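Hi, does anyone understand the following?
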Amino acid sequence: MYRKPSRKHKSKNMTKPNLIPILDSVFIFIFFLLMSANFVKIFEISSDVPIISDQEPPKEKKDALNLSLKIYASSITLHSGNNERTIFKVGKDENGDYDLYKLREKLIQIKKSHSDEDTVIFMPKADIDYETLVKIMDTVRDLKDTDPEIWTKTKAGDDKKVTKLFNNIIFGDTQS
């Protein structure tokens, strides 16, 4: 006997999805990412993390400066040596900002007597905002054209102009 075909057995024409719009959007997205990667510049301020080692440090010919900068809410203090002897303290000016000019003058004076030193340890003891920290770092790192010139002798005996103050900044004892 002949039966009428059911719906289950009817053949359906499978239509393929149109992938062209999807591929177009993927290629446009990839092109956008490649182009925007060239225009975005991310700046970072390099800083080393203190290294903790079990080995004894090598013997140095002379005592290291061990310059550290402690940043408090109302002042900045400079310390030197392993016993962290305070060598300079600067407060805030009438505008409520740290007096970075006096700090810079003292750092230049220290650099003149220790021209081979380039490391300073930052120890923020207060909650300091990012802009203030960057200003202090800029004060500590670079010599400006208006600063007095500092000259040092190379191993060959030639004179060499010092262009950086203390550009190797290490953060120690930071608070979260």
Remarks:
- The CA atoms of residues 88 and 106 lie 8 Å apart.
- The chain has three helices and seven strands.
- The chain has a mean pLDDT of 80.
